[in-house]
Amino acid sequence: MTKKYNRTLVTSALPYANGPVHIGHLAGVYIPADIYVRYLRLKGEEVIHIGGSDEHGVPITIRAKKEGVTPQDVVDKYHAIIKKSFADFGIAFDIYSRTSSEIHKETASDFFLKLYNKGEFEEKTSEQYYDEEARMFLADRYIMGECPHCGNPNAYGDQCESCGTSLSPTDLKNPRSTISGSTPVMRETKHWYLPLDKHESWLRRWILEDHKEWKPNVYGQCKSWLDMGLQPRAVSRDLDWGVPVPLPDAQGKVLYVWFDAPIGYISNTIELLPDSWEKWWKSEDTKLVHFIGKDNIVFHCIVFPAMLKAEGSFILPENVPANEFLNLEGDKISTSRNWAVWLHEYLEDFPGQQDILRYVLTANAPETKDNDFTWKDFQARNNNELVAILGNFINRALVLTQKYFDNKVPQANELTDYDKETLEEFADVKTVVESYLNTFRFRDAQKEAMNLARIGNKYLADTEPWKVAKADMARVETILNIALQITANLAIAFEPFLPFSVKKIRQFINMENLTWDQLGRIDLLPVGHQLNASELLFSKIEDETIEKQVQKLLDTKKANEATEVKVVPQKANIAFDDFAKLDLRVGTVLECIKMPKADKLLQFLIDDGMSKRTIISGIAAWYKPEDLVGKQVCFVANLEPRKLKGVESQGMLLSVEDTDGTLSLIQPPKNVTPGSQIG
């Protein structure tokens, strides 16, 4: 039996305030949440939408150090950018606050103390890397070293960005602090842990038995975590940026960001409704729904519910309709590589066209698996669907009404069988769209709304009122009455999806009070109702516009490739005796010429201290022959001679290849006697 609720509390994942938001964020979390909230409001239900910025954690402190500012400066900057982007795209939050607010610090501290005083935490002492010069414990991202898998010398303590392997700081070879550059030492530190293993039994029952209706990607990930067995998880860490652990013996420790951030939903609700927030978080007749991306499933389905259950007075989420990831042009969206479509930049290039992006991202929503955004698909969906179907139908219905009936709704006369068939086609539109929205299938719901526009478009194309007008105006009245009723229905059906366009449609038809319950009716616009002037809802996007966006991404990829550090993995170890076989010496260049018919090769005559020897080297692209005469170089003296272009090379010059492929000869810092050995 489905439980009845009196109100719905919707939360959207708190975006991290160390950069702007992109289309992946919008598609994965915020458009689905906004569609759902707008739908509930259109139904007249009691609902609030809570959002805010996640402003604590190590990445923010790293960015602050890099930019030479304070962490507060960083979050102030990006909180403002993110908040504006959401507002510009019509994401209808009731509040969009932040976790650096005083009310959040107080709420998070009180929540921690409630659990602490109930004995819900375990205290543990463990060893962690400590920077003796900086006098601080190091978070994983503050430690770098050599990756044990690929040899990358700049792997982080949590992941190697060269080979993608997840790491622990103790996995690194030759670890170093990114703060001071010194070698860190292991030192004991105390932290508080939430014993998730103690909550495993009820979590398993609550999720796997009571919530089988959850999306398969969510249910499956939860089951995987539970089947592996839950472990205690630290709720504090050694850091100077965050909510301080509110205990006397916790100097220099803050609440771990995963623990502090979800409490932001509660603190933001308190900020919005200081006198009535508890009915939203503690009343059993409130339905709590979390909208998140797949990287947050474990926190919102397992960890946060365990926190709420341990506290004892809060409701648990009824659903967590998490989405998968959106890729961009076949590649994973990456903020560090600037491989993204940023919302604020989109509006600079497509001013006033928020609904096009909202529509395309919903049509390609990664609801149960990763999906891909391409600019060609963006263009095709705009031109072939928004322009050719929805926009075309509404424009023709309104323009013809203005032409033949002075912008007043005509009466419907006797209906033909075709009229009745058309009306029957969308009679159940409310039931179908509603069933999809109630089960968080927003892609299907939007598709069904567009099908209503297809019905209207086909109806006008088949009935051809512009031709019928020459002989039968009574028939034209009926056709346009039906077309206008479909238009009014479209204003309702698309309200959750295309709020900016629907606002225009409502203005065109002069109807501001349409509600969800009216969807599917054919008497929404009374006979004689005065319409307003109309305009095109959507415009065709030309190839040049799309080519510009594609080129922008290609330029980004090219810039990334130019700056990408290509670290060559270390070769297998050799015995010292093998190295000792090499005879490395210094010689003076007597002559240097470019070899004929060999653009890359230079021919050297080297004074090796005992004789003169010829060496061929492929460094012509980086040196002029005349600049090398008189210089000293390092070479392998006992390399077996080899003929190149008919000339015998009696050794090999030593050079170093930079990450961009350029070669530089290895030379002694000062002149030495020719023939001097290196070793």
Shape: flat
Integer tally of domains: 4
The total count of helices amounts to: 21
- Portion of residues within helices: 40-55%
Q: CATH H-level name of the largest domain... which superfamily?
A: HUPs
- Would you identify the CATH architecture of the largest domain? 3-Layer(aba) Sandwich
Instruction: Please outline the major beta sheet.
Output: 6 strands, antiparallel
**Low-confidence region ranges:** none
Content-based structural category:
alpha+beta
- C-alpha end-to-end distance: 82 Å
Please report the total strand number as a whole number.
26
What CATH calls the topology of the largest domain is Rossmann fold
Write the layout of secondary structure elements.
Layout: E1 7-12, H1 23-42, E2 47-53, H2 58-67, H3 71-88, E3 95-98, H4 102-117, E4 122-131, E5 136-137, E6 143-146, E7 155-156, E8 173-177, E9 185-194, H5 200-209, H6 216-228, E10 233-234, E11 236-238, E12 253-255, H7 257-272, H8 277-282, E13 286-291, H9 297-311, E14 326-328, E15 331-332, H10 343-349, H11 354-363, E16 371-373, H12 375-405, H13 417-425, H14 429-438, H15 442-463, H16 465-468, H17 473-493, H18 499-509, H19 543-563, H20 576-580, E17 584-594, E18 602-607, E19 612-617, H21 625-628, E20 632-636, E21 642-644, E22 647-649, E23 652-653, E24 655-657, E25 663-665, E26 677-678
Parallel strand pairs: 1-2, 1-13, 2-3, 14-16
Antiparallel strand pairs: 4-5, 4-9, 6-7, 6-8, 9-10, 11-12, 14-15, 17-18, 17-20, 17-26, 18-19, 20-23, 21-22, 24-25
